[in-house]
Specification:
The complex is a heterodimer of chains A (115) and B (113). Chain A is an all-beta fold and 115 residues long. Chain A contains no helices and 11 strands. Chain A is globular and about 40 Å long. The mean pLDDT of chain A is 92. Chain B is mainly β and 113 residues long. Chain B contains 1 helix and 9 strands, in the order ββββββββαβ. Chain B has a 5-stranded mixed beta sheet, with no helix packed on it. Chain B has a 4-stranded antiparallel beta sheet with strand order 2-7-6-5, with no helix packed on it. Classes of the chains: A mainly beta (115), B mainly beta (113). The interface between A and B is medium-sized, with 27 and 30 residues.
Chain lengths: 115, 113
């Protein structure tokens, strides 16, 4: 599926590095999400953008900084991460305003390893 | 917020029908019930969503009793490729906000030959 793409698919970084994760959706949606999935843990919602405005920030440490320049692109800027931040980072998009929890379309994820 | 409870794991064989039940005793009036499927190292994939009674699509059926305190995802004639984690999600963004997007631990379905 090419509806939601994420790059890179794998990333290894040191604790002092700065890197960015990129997400792009080709579905014409107006909401985008970042989730974190650690080993053997449920998905954790990190950030939500609706109509390019941040509408949810679930007490995420400031070393994670999201950016949504337009409705099709979402970035997650990373700096001075900790080893416990190693996880699968998933991007999703949806058409906001639907019933229930909005049907979300997920990307393949970026597997992040912090050394 | 409605919390959900699912079995941690289930086993089945190819060709069988599998029913996964999710309990959500505190479901609110406006909440919908949504199921996702996730393969290892991939993002979840939407399966089906419903509000009450029965919903069916080309992949699965969703049964919701009148009290809506539980729901059952039914997968007809499973194959090996249906081995995955299945999540039940209950909520309503418009009334409860995005904090309603709470994925639980899901049910790991293992399909054997």
């Amino acid at each position: 599926e090419t509806g939601v793409t994420q790059t890179p698919r794998h990333l290894v970084m040191g604790m002092t590095n700065k890197k960015s994760l990129k997400c792009e959706q080709h579905l014409g949606h107006n909401a985008m999400y970042w989730y974190k999935q650690s080993a053997k843990k449920p998905l954790e919602l990190m950030f939500v953008y609706s109509l390019e405005e941040r509408v949810e920030n679930n007490s995420v440490p400031s070393r994670f900084s999201p950016e949504c320049p337009n409705s099709s692109h979402l970035f997650l800027h990373l700096h001075t991460l900790q080893p416990e931040d190693s996880a699968l980072y998933l991007c999703a998009s949806s058409h906001a305003g639907g019933p229930g929890t909005d049907t979300q379309y997920f990307g393949p994820g970026t597997r992040l390893t912090v050394l | 917020l409605a919390k959900t409870t699912q079995p941690i794991s289930m086993d089945s064989y190819e060709g069988q029908e599998v029913n996964i039940t999710c309990s959500h005793n505190n479901i609110a009036t406006n909440d919908y019930i949504t199921w996702y499927q996730q393969f290892p190292s991939q993002g979840p994939r939407f399966i089906i969503q419903g509000y009450k009674t029965k919903v069916t699509n080309e992949v699965a059926s969703l049964f919701i009793p009148a009290d809506r305190k539980s729901s059952t995802l039914s997968l007809p004639r499973v194959s090996l490729s249906d081995t995955a984690v299945y999540y039940c999600l209950v909520g309503d963004i418009m009334n409860s906000g995005y904090s309603t997007l709470t994925f639980g631990k899901g049910t790991m379905l293992l399909v054997s030959p």
